[in-house]
Design goal:
By secondary structure, the protein is mainly α. It is built from twelve helices and no strands. It folds into two domains: 48 residues; 219 residues, MetI-like fold (Orthogonal Bundle).
Amino acid sequence: MNMRLVNYFINQWKRLALQTGALLACLLFWQVASTTKLNLGFITFTYVPTPTAVLDAAWHLFTSNKLLPHLGSSLARVFSGYFAAVIVGIALGLVIGRSRVVEALLLPPLEVLRPIPAVAWIPLAILMFPSSEVSMIFITFTGALFPVLLNTIHGVEAVDKRLIASAKSLGASPFAILHEVILPGAAPSIITGLTIGMGTSWFCLVTAEMISGQWGIGYYTWESYVIQNYADIVVGMLLIGVLGMGCSLLVRLAGNFFIPWYYLRRNV
C-alpha cells in the first residue's frame, strides 16, 4: 500500500513537471518569436507583444481601479446566463430524453439553432431585448445551453432500461424513478455538459460584450484591439482563459462531490 502511494505521488510529480515544462516551452517560443519578429509566411509575430510587455500591461490593469468593475460585470453576465442555461438545459434534457413525442417536437428546432454562433445572435438580441445587459446575458445563455441540454439528453437515454423497469415493478412512483434511477444514472453526462457549458459561456463573453458600452473583460479586450493596445489584448485573453478554466474546474470538483461513486470507480 505504501509503495502504491509512493508511486502515485511520483507519477503526480512527473505529470506536474511535464505540464510545467510545456508551459515554459510555450513562453520561451513566444518570447523568441515576438522579440525577433518571426515571420513564417502564413503567420507573423511582427505585432505580437512580448511576454514581458504583457506582464507589464497586466500589472497596470491589476493596480488600476478598472479591474474590479470589469471582473464584476463579466462574472455577473456569465453566471446569470450560465445558471439560466443550467435550469433550462437540464429540465428540457430530462423531458426530451424521457419522451419520444417531446423529442420529436422540440429537438429538430433546437438542432437548427445549435450551430448558430454567438456573434450571429447579436443583431437579433439587440432587437429582442430592451437593455444591452439582458442581451449580453442571453448570448452567454445560448453558449451554455446546448452543451448542457445535449449531454443531459444523452445521459438520460443511456440509463439502463432494465433499471427503470425494475423500479417500476417494485412500485416506484415516477418522481422516485426520476430521483433514484434516472438522475444518478445520467449525472456523469450532465456534469460533463455543465463543465463544457461553463467554458462556452466564457467563450461567448467577448462576443456578448461587443455590444456593451462600458465594462467587462470582453469589452476591455475588444476596446484594446480598437485602440491598438496589443499587450492589453493578450491580457484580456489570458484573463478570460484563466477565469474560464477556474470556473470549469469548480464545476468539475462539484461534480466529484455529487457523484463520488462514478469517479471512485474510474480510479480503482
